[in-house]
Amino acid sequence: MKQSFQMLLRDWRAGELRVLAMALVVAVASITSVAFFADRVGRALVRDAHQLLGADLVLVSDHPWQSGIAEEIARRGLESAQATTFISMAIAGDNSVLAGVKAVSANYPLRGKLRIAAAVNAADAPAQEGPKPGTVWIEERLVTSLSAPVGARIKLGASTLEIAAILTLEPERGANFFNIAPRLFMNVADLPATGLVRTGSRVWHYLYAAGLPEQVTALETWAKGRMERGQRVENLESGRPEVRGAVERAQRFLGLTALLSAILAGVAIALGTRRFVERHLDGCAVMRCFGATQTRLLMLFGCEFVLLGLVACAIGTAIGFVAQLFIAEILGGLLRADLPAVSMLPALQGFLVGLVLLLGFALPPLVQLKNVPPVRVIRREAGAASGSTLAVYAAGLVSLSGLLIWQAGDVALGVTVVGGFGIAVAVFAVVAWLGLRLAASGPVARRLGSNSIALRYGLANLRRHARGNAIQVASLALGLTAVLLLTFTRNDLVEAWRRSAPPDAPNRFLLGVQPDQLAEVKAFFISRRIAAPELNPMVRGRLTAVNGKSVTEADFTEERARRLVEREFNLSFSDQPPAHNTIVAGKWFAPGTQEVSVEEGIAKTLGWKMGDELTFAVGGESFSARVTSMRKLRWDSMKVNFFVIGPPGLVGRFPASYISAFRLDERDAPLMNDLAARFPNLTLVDVGAAVKQAQGVIDQVITAVQVVFMFALGAGLLVLYSALVATEDERRREAAVMRVYGASRAQVTGSQRVEFLAMGLLAGILATTGAAAIGQLLARRVFELDLPPSPELWLAGPLAGLLLLSLNAWLSARKVLSASPALTLRDSV
Amino acid sequence: MDKTEKTILSARGIGKTVKSGSSDLVILREIDLSVTAGDAVAIVGASGSGKSTLLAILAGLDTPTAGTVEVDGADLFKLDEDQRAELRGKSVGFVFQSFQLLPSLTALENVMLPLELRKDAAAEARAREILARVGLQDRLGHYPKHLSGGEQQRVALARAFSVRPKLLFADEPTGSLDAAAGSGVIDLVFELNRSFGTTLVMVTHDEHLAQRCGRVIRLVAGQIAAG
User: Fold this and answer.
1) How far is B139 from chain A (nearest CA, A)?
2) CA A811 to CA A829: how far, in whole Å?
3) Spatial CB neighbours of A744, under 8 Å, sequence gap ≥ 6
4) Angle, vertex CA B90, rays to CA B84 and CA B92, nearest 5
5) Is the pLDDT of residue A411 over 60?
6) Are strands B92-95 and B167-171 parallel, antiparallel or unpaired?
7) How far, in Å, CA of A313 to CA of A265, rounded?
8) How do beta strands A644-646 and A657-662 pair?
9) Judging by beta carbons within 10 Å of its beta carbon (0-12, 13-18, 19+), is residue A774 exposed, middle or buried?
């Protein structure tokens, strides 16, 4: 052990272990930063489970509760509370903002406490009961955007209410990642007077219950049997799956990013160890001459590496701890929950990953050292390092794959990631190998090489080192792909998304116009000299049957289909097809028929065909109609669109509200405050502001991911560095030989430059292709956008490759030329 | 100085054949020799005569295709590789043409290496002492690349003698050195050899150097021509 420690110190001093140690530190730091954060969030979720639900059992409905349910909760002796949530405009003076309104009974929540403060930045305290009638509590964000401090009055629908406190914590919202609309709490008794809950408003109704466990269980069983469509029961296990889902998805993404750095670090470790082994073969042969047994050698190097691993893991864990503070800080605004202190479990995980990486990738090559024949001291060619990397690294690959699958928590996902990475490496390496061979052989090379020695030797080197160089090019390309994706492709996607909305696209949505307000609203626009927006009727109905066969969400497996069936549809009626829709099948219905026109996407999702008879329930009634036409439309046009449109005679007899999308010049924006004041029940959505708000949230998540991506980038650079260093000795020897035989400095550097530049260009092109392909995949599959090819990306990618390897060529040339050829050759005897 | 008549190294019927394509290439044929403790023996021959291979086999670094070698009473090729390593650690020292110093270790650490492998508690003191004997007391902290060829070979000598081997194998010890440095190293080899009572087996193509050994074995095409 002592001797291993001494060897560790000596090898460290000689610089043999630095790349290895750095790769380990990066991998462990990356893994632990995410693990620490995930652990804290996980424990916060467990700790706050009751509070997150606000009760022991919650009943949720998208329409008002049928009578008997609330009474039954009380009859069974459970505590009960109620809440209603919806989105509405809050208006104070000249400002209006969309708020997430929650009207609650005084005893809400039954579990956990709301926290409020007397003013912004004042100390907060738990609230004993909900807001009193006539008052509201608002989040700090609303205070800012409405310029309305505590004591000010705000308009909500037809009511004016006083701001009584600043809401600082709403446990039920605690760990929700995407809280876009700021919260406003009011007393449920004030709700009818606002006039906001009317036809066409999207409102959720909650009933909360708390009591003894057996009472809760009995109530749950009773309630489950009575849930209608659009109603559900949430308990501690099922509760707030969307919260857990969002957090888990973010964590999984961070985790996979961290693993990417671990994989890259593994590659760096493998390359570094190979060089370590090559450099220690002679030493081991000498040690065997002096009597070291094979077991002894294995023990010595094994202990040395384990010691190195422990030290590097400790440093990596410390860095991971610091990085996790940053991640928590960046995402803190989204989490709105106090995270518990760090536990030591993630540190253990970090050490485990670090040691698996080190032993998996370093031990197999180290075994070669033990097997070096002592006769190598006399005949150097004996016992050269084995070239069959695949067999040597099989152990490392298997253990790493295991880790990945474990981290992904999902065999399919893990296998996809491992497989994807493996395929990418293989494709990059094969293309690089072919490219290098092609560049260096045949007529191209002969013609290029006839004039210049540097070109001829450079190209010859490309061919001769094709295998080693291909690995370097593939590693470099991988690292660059990640960088390009994060910079160019990300921006291109955002830009493409912005562009997909035409410049004259509507930027405001107007919701909830009642039929008796139609004329007044139109008159309002005309009197302000703004083009009167087209107001489309909207009827909310639920799909109950297709061709007479009843439909439930259980009939579908696809997530989107289940959601569509579970929720209410927005139906509309019109004599004419909408101008911005194209009919792709059938014919628009004639007035007075029992026919509907449907959007082709939803028809595909739900399996509707031409001629099918659809039955919808609206309120207590229902109607049926046959599908006689299908429409194609662009959702990103920002215009009002409907899945299902029927003739006025059929759909128009149900209660409707009107909806509009229109374009407003920014200079007319203040007029909208008048609109909101004049028609308090309307909801006006500023699309730009909403997008900006969503963008802000996404930016925060991206920033957090970038913290972790920094590690991946660091690991990528280490791979690049170790790949380049791996061939440095050989390059130096070749340069020395060239110089001995009279090559000028320019010729030596020239030939290396040719080699490096060709490699850099190839790596750059590969990385650009990779980033562009992933970008297209994301655009088509995830964002449903057309992503035009980006000239900047195609310029920057290959240029980055060229630049990186030019830098390397320059550094390498300096090293090669600064050493005298005699010394280089003597060293390498 | 304490010359006894004990045989420390003996070889019987050593042969070495390697496959070269489809035919067999004979490198060594029917070599018999024995070396008495304390002797100095030179093995000379033209390039390709098999002298380095013979040295490797005598030292147990390489295995013969025929014959036996006994070192200090032990039949080398009845031992397994690890047992041979132990025997080398106990009784044998080496000096190579290319020095074979570990580049990542200082002069002192290179000399300490075999002592540490034997778990000698006084490794550092002994290494310092012997480096002083070869005149490198001021170069203890230098790395091989900062030493001249002659100095490197003197470090290698100090390393070889540090464990007071019974047998020292030297493979062209002056092969990489100029005349002046070479003769300095050779003087040192003979001086240390005498003072530690080591048996010396040296491969060289330098006739002058060979003559300084008590006995010369001449190899021609893998066979002993004169002994």
Assistant:
1) 17
2) 24
3) none
4) 75
5) yes
6) parallel
7) 13
8) unpaired
9) middle
| Per-residue pLDDT at A668 exceeds 90 | no
Q: How confident is the model at residue A174 (pLDDT cuts 50, 70, 90)?
A: very low
Confidence of residue B3 (pLDDT cuts 50, 70, 90): very low
Mutate to test the interface with A, among B86, B117, B124, B169 (most CBs of A within 10 A): B117
pLDDT of residue A251 exceeding 70? no
CA distance A203 to A213: 30
pLDDT of A694 over the 60 cut: no
In the predicted structure, residue A316 carries a pLDDT above the cut 50: yes
Residue of B nearest to A297 (CA): B117
> Where are the extended beta strands (E) located within A494-620?
508-513, 536-546, 549-550, 569-573, 582-586, 595-599, 613-618
d(CA A142, CA A700): 20
pLDDT in tens, A506-537: 778 888 888 888 889 889 888 888 877 888 99
Chain A (362-391) residues lying within 8 Å, Cβ to Cβ, of chain B = 373-375, 377-379
Residue A80 CB neighbours (<10 A): 23
Question: Which tokens is A687 given?
Answer: 């699309």
Scanning A275-304 for CB atoms below 8 A from B yields 279, 282-283, 285-296
**Length of chain A in residues, anyone?**
829
Using a CB-CB cut-off of 8 Å, the residues of chain A touching B59 are 289
Distance (Å, whole) CA B186 – CA A332: 75
Helices A687-726 & A294-335 angle (0-180, nearest 10): 170
The closest alpha carbon to A316, from A350, A273, A267, A355, belongs to: A350
**Beta partners for residue A543, in sequence order:** A616
Q: How far is CA A779 from CA A107, A498, A555, A773, A784, in A?
A: 48, 13, 30, 10, 6
**ipTM for this model:** 0.79
Q: Which residue of B has its CA nearest to A376?
A: B61
Cα gap B94→B198, rounded to integer Å: 12
Alpha-carbon span B96 to B89, nearest angstrom: 16
pLDDT value of position A256: 67
Pairing mode, strands A183-187 and A569-573: unpaired
Phi, psi of A652 (to 5 degrees): -70, -10
Contacts of A279 in chain B (CB under 8 A): 103-104
Read off the tokens for A163: 């701001």
Task: Name the packing angle between helices B81-91 and A294-335 (round to 10°).
Answer: 100
pLDDT grade for A177, boundaries at 50, 70 and 90: very low
Beta-carbon contacts of residue A678 (< 8 Å; ≥ 6 apart): A524
Residues sharing a CB contact under 8 Å with residue A562, sequence separation 6 or more, in sequence order: A553, A556
Residue A789, C-beta contacts closer than 8 angstroms, at least 6 positions apart: A772
Tokens at residue A58, please?
A: 């919650």
Question: Strands A115-117, A159-169: parallel, antiparallel or unpaired by DSSP?
Answer: antiparallel
pLDDT per residue over B75-132, tens digit each?
988 988 888 888 888 888 888 888 888 877 889 988 988 888 788 888 899 999 999 9
Residue ranges in A186-226 assigned as alpha helix (H): 191-194, 213-224
* Angstrom distance (rounded) from CA B61 to CA A291: 11
Model confidence at A175, in pLDDT bands (50, 70, 90)? very low
Q: Which tokens hold the place of A89?
A: 């405009």
- Which residue on chain B is closest to A282 by alpha carbon? B100
Asked if the peptide bond before residue A109 counts as cis, ω within 30 degrees of 0, the response is: yes
Comparing CB atoms, the residue among A3, A291, A377 nearest residue B114 is A291
CA A298/CA B118 separation, integer angstroms: 16
